[in-house]
Design brief:
The chain has helices spanning 12-31, 42-49, 53-65, 84-108, 111-126, 136-154, 160-181, 194-209, 213-235, and strands at 39-40, 69-71, 77-79. With 260 residues, the chain is mainly α. The protein has 2 domains: 13-79, Winged helix-like DNA-binding domain superfamily/Winged helix DNA-binding domain (Arc Repressor Mutant, subunit A); 84-235, GntR ligand-binding domain-like (Four Helix Bundle (Hemerythrin (Met), subunit A)).
Length: 260
């Protein structure tokens, strides 16, 4: 059997359930619904997602290979911790990769690309600005529109590999925002001023549409840096007092069921 044929030996239904487990877990890890460093107990995950042990293990192994969780052998899995050092590294790499993607997108972009940017900006501008991170649904809804706008800016870069690297870095960076949203330490509920972010997005869009590469790169670099600065301030804040485990936000998505 060739390596490329190995996935064909797994029944399609099992692959679908494993993919469901992976996507749900990955989304919740990025959103901060699991505390960094926390142990992931299989019985709790089964109850949370309505899935069997096999698809959950497969999903967790896949997430471990991506750096979202840590495999501890017989001890199971835990959420990858966050740290100021990693945040600085992520931010530096994001600024470099984002600059490459944005430069190529501005060089390659056409009228359809420009229209998509304007549409994404319009949707972001119309999304209500959350004022308290404890309103997680409103905050995560805004972040989805925010991510879509940034994705639209670089959509014309022309390099699938560059976009994959960018997505990977962005997902790990968003994990810091997610962890902050569900934190209970003093001051963690206060969000950074998003009015300023709205102004930054407008200026960034105008620079990109004008094909002013130098200005667009400068604005993007500052934008990423300010976001990371807010996350860094949170990381250095006093730890939260002891509190009961947080509940996962209710989801309307259907649950898939599988045997162990």
């Amino acid at each position: 059997m060739r390596l490329g044929d190995m996935s064909n030996s797994v029944p399609a239904a099992d692959r679908t359930v494993a993919e469901t487990a992976y996507r749900h877990l990955r989304g919740d890890l990025i959103a901060g619904r699991f505390k960094p460093g926390a142990r992931l107990r299989m019985n709790e995950l089964q109850a949370c997602y309505g899935l069997g042990l096999s698809p959950l293990r497969e999903a967790l192994l896949r997430l471990a290979s991506e750096g979202f969780v840590i495999s501890e052998g017989q001890r199971g899995f835990s959420v990858t911790p966050v740290s100021l050092g990693e945040l600085k590294d992520l931010t530096s790499m994001r600024q470099r990769i984002e600059a490459m993607a944005l430069t190529d997108a501005i060089a390659n972009g056409d009228a359809d690309w420009e229209a998509a940017i304007m549409a994404a900006y319009h949707r972001l501008a119309r999304e209500p600005l959350p004022t308290d991170s404890r309103d997680t649904e409103a905050t995560l809804g805004w972040e989805l529109k925010h991510r879509a706008f940034h994705d639209a800016l670089v959509a014309a870069c022309g390099s699938p590999w560059l976009l994959r690297l960018r997505t990977q870095l962005a997902d790990h960076s968003e994990r810091y925002l997610g962890a902050r949203l569900f934190d209970r330490r003093p001051g963690s509920a206060a969000l950074p001023p998003r009015r300023r972010a709205a102004d930054e997005h407008g200026a960034l869009m105008q620079a990109v549409l004008a094909h002013d590469t130098a200005k667009a790169l400068s604005l993007m670099d500052q934008h990423i840096g300010r976001t990371a600065q807010a996350a860094g301030q949170w990381l250095q804040a006093p730890p939260a007092p002891s509190a009961p485990a947080r509940k996962r936000v209710a989801s309307h998505r259907p649950r898939a069921h599988a045997t162990n």
